[in-house]
Write a structure and sequence with these properties.
Length: about 120
């Protein structure tokens, strides 16, 4: 499992922390797009969109390829898979903890019920 101190995990969560970058990834989940296509629905300048794209690229979430003057972008799901694996580990941990807490509370409730009946 990837560790919590992993620079890859830190970069992934940092990149995903911004709603504009999450929106860009949602757009790219439908397929490859140009910078202009990604910028069109956003209410910001092209340089501002480019900064968001740079953060996503540095986090390894985007792959850019050039076709002449066009820059085509696609998602690289690898960092997302690493983040999912890390989150899944803690989901199992917390679910197990909550299950044990529920069992404990049920036992305590049964003890109280027995004492009241006695």
């Amino acid at each position: 499992m990837i560790g919590a101190d992993s620079p890859i995990l830190t970069a992934t969560f940092s990149a995903l922390s911004d709603p504009t970058r999450r929106f860009i990834l949602e757009q790219l989940s439908e397929g490859e797009a140009t910078v202009g296509e990604l910028a069109a629905p956003l209410d910001m300048s092209l340089p501002a969109v480019s900064k968001h794209l740079k953060v996503l690229e540095e986090a390894g979430l985007l792959v850019r390829r050039r076709e002449g003057r066009r820059h085509l972008l696609t998602i690289d799901p690898t960092p997302l898979a690493d983040a999912r694996e890390w989150l899944e580990h803690y989901r199992r941990f917390w679910e197990g903890s909550f299950d044990r807490l529920a069992e404990y509370l049920e036992k305590e409730e049964r003890k109280k019920t027995k004492k009241k009946k006695s």
